[in-house]
Q: What sequence folds into this?
């Protein structure tokens, strides 16, 4: 057992159900001789009481930024620095967001901003919250700022779902504390970025290939043909497939959304590059063509910038791009077991979708209305109709993440069905 008797830990407890495990962590730290000072957020006090913390730590428990009595004993700046390590367990999405953005509106966040000590974070939250782009952005920022992470683990959640977001168990947090105190910075990699931590779930062992975003077809070195696709839906599908345990290859056109963690992302620009990247990624169990591929490219991109001149506007000659979805669906070797396309329509939604299902030889078409008024292109919500040869079902207007989760769950069931 490591001797931590000279070590002082400042333990910030966030408001999550996992806070009960923190009591066990304190017990183990105390067993090793460490001094533990606990700081409770307001939300945390709904899960564990100051009395149990004071009893276990044998120290005063700190809760209020403006408590004069606390300031008289030890000011919050001193509290934040009078420690060898700051540990946040459980670290909620809210605490991570505050810390990543430098907010300081209560005692816990103020201490985290004021400290000059290393911070070790044990995140705990629902898997959807953990996989949200906002949370992942914050985690990436904190990681870049030198914050250390332990967990989260993959498993059953208090809310009944399965996935990444469970707080690590006290022995693992204790081991991380010991490594951090010993100056080990290998811990700095948040688990969600290390693919083995995610490889469980109904798609475990499966390979899912997804296209996402627009393509850019050059006219000259500075101009291109493009469309309004943001990549939000395709990237959400990649995150959902990963959360179900699949190995995921995402072939992304030019987008502003971040690469999903734990996913192999290949960046391309044109339709032809996208097709090459998809073919190189095969074999796959499931292929989802979510990209809004430019249908046409200029016959001959010009090497130098086209100048204005006496001849007036240039005439562009367009040629058709390869249809990636149809090409993959018609492969005679290494055709993915399930091939899924989208039908982005502004009129005759279901009729056009049914035609695409047959014309492109795919197993499922996700039809969505992309008329300007719907705000689907670039927006965060989507109302889709899922069409297979067996029939069609319409889903309500949903967040794109929710569409992605429902879709991947359905595809995982179809894949299982096709094998039994
Ligand atoms: N798609 C593709 N390669 C293309 C064009 C489309 O892989 N060159 C895929 C899209 O990713 C989508 C599906 O085909 O999954 C349908 O795309 P959509 O733009 O709705 O249809 P188009 O085939 O382009 O037909 P149209 O524009 O005439 O509706």
A:
């Amino acid at each position: 057992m490591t001797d931590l008797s000279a070590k002082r830990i400042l333990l910030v407890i966030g408001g999550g159900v996992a806070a009960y495990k923190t009591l066990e962590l304190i017990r183990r730290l105390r067993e090793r001789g460490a001094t533990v000072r606990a700081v409770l957020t307001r939300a945390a006090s709904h899960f564990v009481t100051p009395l149990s913390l004071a009893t276990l730590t044998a120290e005063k428990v700190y809760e209020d930024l403006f408590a004069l009595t606390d300031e008289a004993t030890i000011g919050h700046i001193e509290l934040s620095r009078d420690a060898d390590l700051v540990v946040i367990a459980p670290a909620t999405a809210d605490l991570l967001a505050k810390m990543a953005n430098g907010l300081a509106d209560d005692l816990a966040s103020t201490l985290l901003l004021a400290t000059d000590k290393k911070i070790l974070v044990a995140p705990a939250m629902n898997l959807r919250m953990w996989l949200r782009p906002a949370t992942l952005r914050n985690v990436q920022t904190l990681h870049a700022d030198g914050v250390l992470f332990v967990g989260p683990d993959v498993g059953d959640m208090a809310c009944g779902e399965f996935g990444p977001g469970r707080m690590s168990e006290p022995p693992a947090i204790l081991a991380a504390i010991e490594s951090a105190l010993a100056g080990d910075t290998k811990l700095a990699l948040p688990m969600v970025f290390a693919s083995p931590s995610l490889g469980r779930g109904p798609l475990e062992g499966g390979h899912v290939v997804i296209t996402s975003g627009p393509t850019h077809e050059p006219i000259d070195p500075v101009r291109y043909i493009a469309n309004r696709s943001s990549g939000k839906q395709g990237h959400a599908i990649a995150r959902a497939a990963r959360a179900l345990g699949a190995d995921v290859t995402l072939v992304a056109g030019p987008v502003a959304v971040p690469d999903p963690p734990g996913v192999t992302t290949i960046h391309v620009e044109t339709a032809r590059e996208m097709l090459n990247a998809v073919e190189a990624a095969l074999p796959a169990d499931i292929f989802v063509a979510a990209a809004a591929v430019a249908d046409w490219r200029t016959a001959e991109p010009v090497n130098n910038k086209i100048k204005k001149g006496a001849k007036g506007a240039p005439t562009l000659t367009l040629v058709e791009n390869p249809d990636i979805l149809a090409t993959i669906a018609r492969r005679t070797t290494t055709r993915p077991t399930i091939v899924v396309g989208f039908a982005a329509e502004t009129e005759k939604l279901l009729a056009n979708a049914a035609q695409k299902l047959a014309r492109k030889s795919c197993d499922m078409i996700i039809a969505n209305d992309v008329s300007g008024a719907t705000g689907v292109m670039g927006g965060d919500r989507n109302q889709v109709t899922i069409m297979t040869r067996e029939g069609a079902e319409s889903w309500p207007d949903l967040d794109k993440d929710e569409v992605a989760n429902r879709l991947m769950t359905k595809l995982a069931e179809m894949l299982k069905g096709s094998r039994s």
